[in-house]
Automatic annotation (TrEMBL):
Keywords: Oxidoreductase. It comes from Streptomyces badius. The active site is at E238. This is Aldehyde dehydrogenase. It comes from the Bacteria. InterPro entries: Ald_DH/histidinol_DH, Ald_DH_C, Ald_DH_CS_CYS, Ald_DH_CS_GLU, Ald_DH_N, Aldehyde_DH_dom, LUC3-like. Belongs to the aldehyde dehydrogenase family. Residues 13-452 form the Aldehyde dehydrogenase domain.
Amino acid sequence: MAPYRLAPDPASSGERLTVLDPASGEAFDEAPDQRAQELDVVVRRAHEAWRSWRTDPAARAAALLASADAVEAAGDRLAPLLTREQGKPLAESYAEIARTAARLRWFAASVPETRTIADGRAVHSEIRWRSLGPVAAIVPWNFPLQLASAKFAPALAAGNTVVLKPSPFTPLATRLLGSVLSAALPEGVLTVITGREPLGALLASHPGIRHVTFTGSAPTGRSVLAGAASGLARVTLELGGNDAAILLDDVDVERIADRLFWAAFRNCGQVCMAVKRVYAPARLHDRVVEALAARAKAVVVGAGLDPGTELGPLNNAAQLARVERYTARALADGARAAAGGHRLDRPGYFHAPTVLTDVPPGSPVVTEEQFGPVLPVLPYGCVDEAVDAANATRFGLGGSVWGTDLDRAEAVAGRLECGTAWVNHHAELSLAQPFAGVKESGVGVAGGPWGLYGNLSPFVVHRPREDRP
């Protein structure tokens, strides 16, 4: 593996944060455990860098393109490190790095549109756009680099500077990413800070931060929202989901089984918009369970750095315990494991890919976000029943409908209470589209031009159309 250890951050207190390998559960490296008093220095530097960064859109675009090139060039250093601390298969880490570079290029070409207001008055009114200032980007451990770039790429393109805080479970690849980007970005434009809580909460509430963008759990999101409110900072929150997949009675089970399986189990189920519940017509229910269980039993589970691995471990001990708890509760309530149903007897945070049937509808594995390799399959009698069940959740991130009649499937998808609905696929996003949730799945919009404008403030200039005395 290529070397990746970074020199100590000169702004760090000297305290260290131990990083564990989820494939073994053992410590393999450290990162700075930064303290609250260091935030003032970091945010002040971000504010100073903002003064010049905001003034030259062409220079920003060039810097973002150079950043994309630098990320791709560092792929062979970034990917193994990302897999080592996060757990995902190496191919998925390379895909995450490619997505990071692609997002930088997409936003490098994104320019806010100056607009003229035509309302019949003898006044020329023009809407221009201004950056906000330092942005706090707080990122979880499931897609550390991809979600970081989803926050910093539009923020930087808009002329803001960014203070980026990764999860304490996955700080290393993000620190390396920050080092890589420092060759393309002016000093202070993007700063990575690492540490345990309450570092993130203190960053969100810092008076020098003008926009807080966070991805994580709803309880933590509420804390972030409360902290940001103290300084009236703008807030964008993506708070997870409990996405349902509805299979219609004309679905070709074998044809869609692979896509459906990976829509639920990719990244060991640790995807906010993964399929987390499947609703199947009663007459097809057993076939659906059988098809998904066969794939769960056949998938290769192992360390992400092993070439044959298709599914890695969960990222951390707490998440493994959560998945075990939800699975055990479902089995105790009468559910049956058609595949898996237990953690694997090996070092690390491995849980067998699990397909559950006969699950009580009120079981937490159905009503909550399990965020792991466990999938309940529930039967339904009519489509209205399936739609009602899919919508009976406090979450509303995504959902999908699967069937042969695409017009019918799209009509059903239009009834789902979520931010994105797919037909015959799931969790596929374009860089050009908005990404948002309803209910407790989020506040604000990310992605595409909406992500850019979310990092800008309108500035309106009025002037007479002709000189007046």
